[in-house]
Recover the amino acids of this structure.
């Protein structure tokens, strides 16, 4: 299944840093996020888009992860040549990440 | 326990106006906040003020004030806004003039100034946080330097009886924190209350982004009524308790999910959300749906404020030229790629001086690059986009021209060419010792 089946996401911008939240629809699925949506996978997914580091913060209270991606906005929102200078569309790429449910089937996913 | 209801009437400068009117009319609110100041807006407003000393505030100030002032005056709702941009005093005078023209007398309008710290910064060795170099090295490219002020001067203006408080650069959550400090008399070193109040302000500051805007994803996250999206209300108790809600019958939805997304929006380390008044800690925040469109948010904390204020520095950063043209039907992608190759070669052949360029196929790879695009099938139509950074306007114009000439010189059947060139005002930041920014309040009577 895809990450989009079990989580939702929002991108924010500050200067040349993009942050992407990944929030489990169901608290029971949060451990799956923690084990599979690692900063290494996120860094690999975005490839050349993210020149700097990807740091992950865990928020178990709200079943969420927050990825902070340095040097990810083409030099910064106010000067980038990109069509989407804010990187607002980046969360949509992350939600396409493949997740190994380990359930046998995905009936438990919302 | 005492409590207040604060409405959020705008999430950015160009935001819809009628949801704010709806809040004032039907929101049962005591405070209405308009957050209208983007990162570079102050720099652009400063440029306007240099041309005309009576300008430099938000271009929609008049339209917003005319729409809500009569309702707010009748109901005693206090307005707090950063629509002052680069000229809060002129914005206050304009607001007084509008109030008089609406027949509203005896409104007390306060302008908060002191965020402009250009003189204190411009020749300093303060390092820029986002790019290499110092303030001094930016030299005469600098247009503005504005410190993010905290809630104290706004709360002081409310304490002094202001009906409308207009600031320039202030931290966005502080616009909401000020009414809480005013209403409840919170101490400016009660870090946990200021932290929880910051959670409230942070959740409310983008208006529609917590009531279902920037959220809908059909089939996965459905939201009804986005064309008449209601803006949020924060019910805040004097102990910091918080419920997020909206006007009954308005479009959109307030759910635990919309609140969680907004809690982390533009946040880095959730334990250290640095504000002028407090370092807020979101790591223990709990979010629970208690009724339809009512979400309780608790557990925000805080630690002592930092010794510095963040200063947003606007500077001229060269020019960007751009051109676009479309191709459709069979072979559209191949002709689009050929078109990009032609322009790439033309920019070299004709010696257009750029320091950075970008060649996009809109519909294929313009948002996430070529690598992520490989999994998609060919679309029916594509649009090419070429952009480049240059030192002069003249050079920037040449980029769009090279795209436009594809009409008669490029692949078959290219249509809808557009071109543009613009000066870039970019923003960087420095950290300034907080005692170098001195806020003050000026009252204007309507």
């Amino acid at each position: 299944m895809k990450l989009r089946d079990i989580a939702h996401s929002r991108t924010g911008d500050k200067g040349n840093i993009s942050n992407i939240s990944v929030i489990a629809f169901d608290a029971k699925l949060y451990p799956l996020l923690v084990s599979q949506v690692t900063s290494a996978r996120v860094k690999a997914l975005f490839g050349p888009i993210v020149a700097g580091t990807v740091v992950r913060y865990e928020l178990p209270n709200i079943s969420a992860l927050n990825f902070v991606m340095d040097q990810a906005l083409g030099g910064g929102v106010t000067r980038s040549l990109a069509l989407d200078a804010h990187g607002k569309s980046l969360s949509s790429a992350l939600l396409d990440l493949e997740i190994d449910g380990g359930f046998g089937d995905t009936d438990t996913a919302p | 326990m005492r409590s207040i209801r604060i409405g959020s009437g705008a999430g950015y400068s160009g935001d819809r106006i009628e949801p704010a009117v709806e809040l004032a009319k039907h929101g049962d609110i005591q405070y209405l906040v308009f957050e209208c100041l983007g990162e570079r807006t102050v720099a652009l407003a400063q440029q306007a003020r240099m041309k005309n000393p009576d300008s430099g505030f938000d271009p929609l100030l008049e339209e917003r004030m005319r729409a809500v002032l009569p309702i707010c005056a009748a109901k005693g709702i206090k307005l707090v806004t950063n629509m002052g941009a680069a000229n809060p005093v002129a914005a206050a005078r304009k607001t007084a003039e509008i109030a008089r023209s609406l027949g509203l007398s005896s409104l007390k309008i306060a302008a908060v100034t002191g965020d402009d710290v250009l003189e204190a910064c411009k020749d300093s060795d303060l390092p820029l946080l986002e790019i290499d170099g110092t303030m001094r090295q930016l030299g005469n490219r600098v247009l503005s330097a504005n410190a993010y002020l905290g809630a104290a001067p706004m709360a002081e203006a409310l304490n002094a009886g202001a009906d409308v408080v207009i600031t320039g650069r202030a931290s966005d959550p502080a616009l909401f924190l000020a009414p809480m400090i005013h209403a409840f008399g919170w101490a400016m070193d009660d870090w946990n209350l200021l932290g929880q109040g910051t959670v409230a302000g942070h959740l409310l500051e983008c208006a529609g982004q917590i009531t279902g805007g920037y959220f809908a994803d059909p089939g996965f996250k459905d939201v009804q009524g986005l064309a008449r999206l209601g803006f949020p209300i924060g019910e805040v108790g004097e102990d910091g308790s918080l419920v997020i809600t909206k006007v009954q019958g308005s479009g959109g939805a307030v759910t635990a999910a919309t609140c969680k997304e907004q809690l982390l929006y533009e946040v880095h380390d959730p334990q250290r959300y640095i504000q002028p008044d407090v370092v807020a800690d979101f790591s223990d925040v709990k979010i629970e749906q208690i009724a339809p469109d009512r979400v309780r948010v608790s557990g925000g904390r805080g630690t002592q404020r930092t010794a510095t204020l963040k200063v947003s520095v606007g500077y001229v950063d060269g020019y960007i030229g751009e051109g676009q043209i479309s191709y459709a039907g069979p072979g559209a992608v191949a002709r689009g790629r050929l078109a990009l190759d032609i322009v790439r070669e033309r920019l070299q052949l004709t010696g257009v001086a750029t320091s950075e360029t970008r060649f996009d196929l809109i519909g294929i790879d313009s948002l996430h690059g070529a690598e992520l695009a490989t999994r998609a099938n060919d679309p029916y139509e594509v649009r090419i986009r070429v952009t480049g950074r240059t030192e002069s306007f003249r050079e920037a114009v040449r980029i769009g021209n090279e795209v436009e000439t594809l009409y008669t010189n490029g692949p078959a059947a290219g249509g809808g060419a557009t071109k543009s060139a613009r000066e870039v005002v970019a923003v960087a930041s420095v950290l300034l010792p907080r005692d170098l920014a001195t806020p003050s309040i000026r009252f204007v009577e309507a």
About this structure: Residues 37 and 91 of chain A are 13 Å apart (CA to CA). The helical segments of chain A are 30-36, 39-46, 90-94.
